[in-house]
Specification:
It contains 12 helices and 19 strands. The chain is α+β, with helices and mostly antiparallel strands. It has a single domain (about 5-30, about 90-440), classed as Beta-lactamase (3-Layer(aba) Sandwich). Strands 2, 3, 4, 5, 14, 15, 16, 17 and 18 form a 9-stranded mixed sheet that branches. Strands 1-13-12 form a 3-stranded antiparallel sheet. Helix 2 (about 60-75) packs antiparallel against helix 12 (about 430-440) and helix 3 crosses helix 8. It is globular, with a radius of gyration of 21 Å. It starts with a helix and ends in a 9-residue tail after the last helix. Residues about 1-30 have low confidence and may be disordered.
Length: about 450
Amino acid sequence: MKFSLSSTLAALRAPVILIILGLLAACAPAPVEQPTPVTEAPAAQALARVPPEEAGMDSERLDRVTHAMQAFVDEGKLSGAVTIASRDNKLVHFESVGYRDIEAQAPMTPDTLFRIYSMTKPVTGVALMILYEEGKFKLSDPVEKYLPEMKDLQVYAGTDNDGNMITEPADHPMTIRELMSHTGGLTYGIFGQSAVDSAYVRAGLLDANMTNAEFVAALGQIPLKHQPGSRWEYSVSVDVQGYLVEVLSGMRFGEFLDERIFQPLEMTDTDFHVPEEKINRFAQMYVYGPEGQLVPSEMFDGADFTVDMAFESGGGGLVSTANDYMRFSQMLLNGGELDGMRILAPLTVELMHRDQTPAGMTGPMSGAGNGTVFGLDFAVIEDPVEAESYSSGEYYWGGAAGTWFWIDPVEEVVFVGMIQQAGQGLPDVRSTSRRLFYQAIMDPKGV
């Protein structure tokens, strides 16, 4: 059973919020060819499994997370789930429930591979900030300085009587900071109904057969939806960032990710496709049928993650495992380092989860009413009361197929959840897991 792009994504408008990581704009350091080993005395190996009590948590209470995920499976709302959590650099929870494939009665396992869609975005942000640390750009630089395809962009200003777009010049060139904080005037095409969104769809943006360069060239022919810096709108901006990594590094995007992030962090199962020898670990994707039943189906027409396609989407193309994404997230919580391999400097990571949005901006990440702002490819909790969370400074994002994660620097927590469901009927696994995880903390650091 296939679902059309428009009908499937119309059902997916559950709020998903992102956070983006920024960096010091200072004098250019000497180029760094590879992630460098940490020279200080090595700490104990990260993510060793320990009883939760060793990290100030209650085992019985923490088990409620697993029981809740199992209940969603028993109710027919989820096929299965993998959840993993750390505190104080130690693994305190790693459980799988349900099925990777219901029809085959294949159980969900800790090493199951998932489509992580927009959880690709923080990975792309880290890749770009590696190049920032090497002095390749400033956050205030115009995007067009490095991508001439994005030069002299016009901005949508309405339509005439014949339905044609009226445009006006941009009041300033989109900056890389605006690109990384979804405030550059771009959109997604699949979430909105404007003339600009329709133009994205007609242009076939995000087509898997496009190269990253062809994607940016096509995008540069379409007006911006908003004046740069005026509004937060979820967009293809992180796909542009993926191509920017290629231009600045001289490497194919996927090769850069593998060499500079995946190999150093031992993220051995993260890639833009699932190779043949791993297909038996790849979870089936499900959507919800008319009666709320789980129906096996990809979200997008023609999606096939078992094929290595030309387009390496920085905004949503990766597959990964819960353990791999935990290693990536723990690196960030550790200030850019994991098990002796430094990916970013601590201050660079700090920039990424600071509010990077322009003053006076409108839109959902303006902090008004929801306590959430946006950094560099991450959403950031500014007011935990408004956001119904626990710690100021928590940063997070999620994926369209139901995956989610958060990083809490106050309680020194990482939580990653992996499912493969989308559409009306999706249970609120994110808030459920958050409540049940935090109620298991017996030794809070933030009070």
